[in-house]
Amino acid sequence: MIKFLKNFFYVFLVLAISKNVYAFDLKSLTDKIQKDVGEKLKIPQTNSGSNPLGGMLKGLNQNKGSTMMTTTGQSTSGGSSNKKLAKGLCEPNIPQTIKNLPNANVSLVEKDFGKSRNEIIKILNSIPSSSNDPYVSSLNTFDGAFETKEIEILFNSFLKNKSIDDLAKIRAIVDMKAGFNKNKKQIKADAIFAYGLVHYYLRDNGGKKDLGLKYIKQATAGPDNIGALTVYGAWQFYGINVPQNIQAGNMSTLTGYQRANEKKRQLNTTGPFKGLNAFKWAETVFFEIAADNRNPYKDQYQSQLARARQMNKEVMAELAKSKKNDPKSGWWPFVVAQQNRQHAILNALGENLGLGEQLSELKAQYAVLASKVASDNKLVERMVIINEEMNLRVQKALNSTKTVDQQGKIQIANLAHDNEVLILQNHNFMLSLMANMMAGGGFGGAGFYELTKIVGVAGKTEKVACEVYSGVKSYASRTSITLPKPVTTENTKFKSKFRKKRKS
User: Fold this and answer.
1) Which residues span the domain enclosing 448?
2) pLDDT attached to residue 75
3) Which residue, of 4, 62, 294, 349, is most buried by count of CB atoms within 10 Å of its CB?
């Protein structure tokens, strides 16, 4: 039974930390846990549901459109192929319902602020980087505080561009008649929180504090918003902005935390959360409140969390012995090879865009790391950092460079092809990794530390590759470059030559 529990917590943590791993159908597993060991864990069942681990277990049963892995690493769903192209992995579709939402109405924003459009634009262009409220210290903290793509897209666009039109779009949705449409009700709840959050955050810089508080509170009603539950719950618990109510505050932050975890587990499934951002702040706030001496459930929380930590510690100790942690075997050679391919693609793109001199120092640093990584796989993480920096410079050039000669166009087209191959290889690697762990019955013997590092590296590899995909696609459209047909399989050959694994 202990082994069974260890396996569960291992899977749970892997899924929780991975941005790039598809969730398995864990319904039967969690049902068994709840049935067989619920009493042994002594999970308290209260009317308020104030139990973090119980909520986690329950939430795992609610995964929709679950994807099961075969031992080949291919994903299947209901017997049909779920093969992804780079476009599907890098450019998740914007929901169709966004077209049916109210149009931006700047006059409503002007009325709320009591200021003209130009005055509001000045306010938005000078949004402070932080505020003195510890639970609303930055707007960027809430980039994942939504359960609908429509509002997360709009809010993140607002964060990036500080556009009054984005804010006006959100404001119009606040007044939307959702009717009996469940999705639209959630869209409205998310919009109410987003708009209220902006006003509250700007309370000392032209926003309306009372209006912000009103909307944030409103967003805690059904249907509610996870960001609102987290913020308003913290306020209730500590008596900030609202009368202190420890019980209600605990319940709200717990609910926000559970909902955030449910979203996090489904970020890479085919469900409504695919492509969205995790809301990490909910966990931070809840764990703070769970450890507070004023919390009546503190002992229960800490006991359960301590048990989970101990189990995880044992798992890590057992699995760290894996031979796959050997830098010359296991998964590491492929991980290193992927970084080398990505580096070569970025370097070649940079050369074609006139960045040779700008990238020379980064290339030199990378070469040193590449010569040593065979004996120290931890250097891969530093290689990733260099590739991320190169990508930033390449993206800037893609956005500003007007055109290249015909030979350059051909090379960029070939590099676009190679980048798509890399994307599919990386995706398939993650699927195979998880499939092999499941097929092995003991999760492949991979060390926890090793696995988290590999997952993290693969996630960053995908992020950079997807940015290259979108950047090159936009550049090609602007400069009349004909890109090759989409790559359909990870077995497609690269058009360019890449750095081979160095021998130690």
Assistant:
1) 323-479
2) 35
3) 349
